[in-house]
Design brief:
heterodimer, A: 194 residues, alpha+beta, 5-stranded antiparallel beta sheet, 3 helices, 5 strands, 40% helix, 23% strand, B: 196 residues, mainly alpha, two-stranded antiparallel ribbon, 9 helices, globular
Chain lengths: 194, 196
């Protein structure tokens, strides 16, 4: 009994030291990682919908993650130029996150795949402009890959990844549109964080 | 002199991938491009070096019965340090290596060297062993990745080498390509060895 207690205590001591080390490193790196992430998202937003001021909107959705998107307004006239948001769906081997910008008519302006771990050489090609440029100008009901009757040419050998991106965009646009149009018709009862 | 031989043995004579055949999982997974190979190699070398040193230092206070859990704790701690550091300072590389950084924890080379070498040898030799094995691992990864990137993507280190008319051999980038490349390289190593 005593022997096993001793083993347990030694292991505990090693774990305690390791944890202390990790807590220390984390305290150094955590703020930097957060900063990098925020900066990356800001840059991605600005490159997708250039020349506008962004307003962050967070809407609580019962039973799901809250819906977050940004309204882009012209700096001078405050006219709504478009919206940006992040769409995510499970692809072949990872969750594929795509950032997209739509105009005020909810037609796609540009998309950018910001996070994925799909198969290198196949699904991972989703980040290439040759693929993402195809989404430009599509209306929400046109965002379909060729196998589903749309015009988007799927990536070779990676229909699942292509489909995940297309479907995630359609879903997210629908959600954003619903919320944005409600806001336009009924201003006042909203929770807007600048 | 022992220091030098412990250092150099990892590169050819006891190369972790081609001769000891350890750590094949990350080898197959990240050798799709030379860039990834170097990043993975550097991260694994750092972990190998640190864990070898620490394990050599604590070998007398670690009871034999719980040595494996202790080694894993040491290795996992260093891997997490590397993971966080890379995310903070080289975010692009961290992104492309993705899942494979945390998986260094279960890389058999690192636990293998801890058990087979660092737990039985002094600090200096363990340090040499860590560096040597790390270099051997990195070099092997680069060789495999060079072949796969060239055949499967027509480029080397991200630079286009073959003309754009070259139709990439997609299989080289996929998992079977890694096995086949590795098989050919091992055969080549054995052939050279027998000639000697």
């Amino acid at each position: 009994m005593k022997f096993f207690l001793r083993l347990g205590l030694i292991l505990l001591a090693f774990c305690a030291i390791a944890t202390a080390l990790l807590a220390f490193v984390n305290s150094i790196t955590q703020p930097r990682i957060e900063l990098l992430k925020a900066e990356q998202e800001r840059q991605a937003r600005a490159s997708l919908l250039p020349g506008v001021e962004f307003e962050r909107v967070a809407q609580n959705v019962p039973g799901a993650d809250s819906l977050i998107y940004y309204i882009g307004r012209a700096a001078d006239t405050k006219e709504i130029k478009g919206y940006t948001f992040t769409a995510a769906k499970v692809g072949y081997s990872s969750t594929v996150k795509t950032m997209a910008a739509v105009d005020s008519e909810f037609k796609l302006l540009a998309i950018k795949v910001i996070e994925q771990a799909e198969t290198p050489g196949l699904g991972a090609n989703a980040t290439a402009p040759t693929f993402t440029d195809q989404f430009k100008g599509l209306a929400p009901d046109q965002i379909l890959v060729d196998k589903d009757g749309g015009q988007i040419k799927s990536l070779t050998g990676a229909t699942i990844t292509s489909r995940a991106i297309a479907n995630s965009l359609t879903e997210q646009i629908t959600a954003v549109r619903l919320d944005a149009e409600q806001r336009l018709t009924a201003p006042g009862n909203e929770e807007v964080t600048p | 002199m022992r220091f030098v031989s412990e250092l150099s043995k990892g590169i050819i004579k006891e190369n972790p991938i081609f001769v000891i055949v350890l750590g094949l999982c990350p080898t197959l997974a990240v050798s799709t491009s030379v860039n990834n190979a170097i990043g993975m190699g550097a991260a694994a070398t750092f972990v190998l070096l640190c864990s070898n040193v620490i394990i050599s230092l604590i070998k007398n206070v670690t009871p034999a019965k719980i040595r494996i859990p202790v080694y894993i704790v040491v290795i996992a701690a260093f891997v997490t340090v590397v993971d966080m550091m890379m995310a903070a300072y080289v975010p692009d590389l961290h992104k492309s290596l993705g899942l494979f950084i945390p998986l260094i924890v279960v890389n058999c080379i690192i636990l293998g060297r801890a058990e087979a070498f660092a737990s039985k040898n002094n600090l200096l030799n363990s340090l040499a062993d860590g560096i040597g094995m790390g270099l051997g691992f990195t070099l092997s990864l680069v060789v495999v990745a060079s072949i796969r990137e060239l055949l499967g993507n027509g480029s080397w280190f991200g630079m286009r080498v073959l003309p754009s008319t070259y139709n990439p051999m997609l299989m080289a980038i996929l998992a079977p390509g890694a096995f086949i490349t590795l098989g050919f390289l091992m055969a080549l190593m054995n052939m050279l060895k027998e000639k000697k």
